[in-house]
Amino acid sequence: MPQPVPSAAASTSNDTLISKAKSHLLQNYKQQPIVLVKGRGTRVWDADGREYLDLIGGVATCALG
Length: 65
Known about the structure:
65 residues; three-stranded antiparallel β-sheet; 18% strand; 26% helix; alpha+beta
């Protein structure tokens, strides 16, 4: 049975997570405007609870075999 995605109020927002990453991690690449926190099959969710269709999830499998 699929697990419910936590509501935005119960989790940390994209903006908060990106801000924390900027203060704790090397900025060696451009930060994407969202933080993915969950994935199931072809769907992924961000920290604000929005659902997206994952269109690049298998891109490395072609190159890596």
